[in-house]
Amino acid sequence: MHETVEQYVTRLQTLAGDDPFSILRATPGRLAALLGRVEPALMARRADPDKWSIAEIVAHFADAELVAAYRVRTMLATNAAPIAAYDQDVWAETFQYRVQDSIASLQLFTAYRTGTLRVADSVEPSRLEHYGLHQERGRETVRQLLRLLAGHDINHLTQIERLVGGDGLHPA
Fold first, then answer.
1. How confident is the model at residue 166 (pLDDT cuts 50, 70, 90)?
2. CB-facing half-sphere around the CA of 69: CA atoms within 13 A
């Protein structure tokens, strides 16, 4: 069953809870700790043919953060800016997530996230109420986007935790 955009947003906002900035700050370290528990040869293994491997999820983390970093900066600088959607599955295929080095993806993600937080922390707090007009989600403030990003982190960290926990990541 596919979620509607509204269901997806609600689920991620619920996952983010009341302190999304703590989640955003902690994610790079949590992700690094999880990756440290996985043999490199298992990073590309899928537990299910229709689900992403750890390598794919981590590459997605990096690209999603790159997109979020651009969106945050755009909205902070230009209130009511149009925000284009993107198809994560097309990106995964185009940029060959399955064969990406997970540690290199983690390094990119960490650098992008550090920049996103630096920018969010450095602007006048009132600018976090600037908004963009997202192609699919409609009006969305910087604060709302950061909360969605925190929920996105929890969603994918949970997927990786399940995979690291042994659900299918065993050598063939």
1. low
2. 18
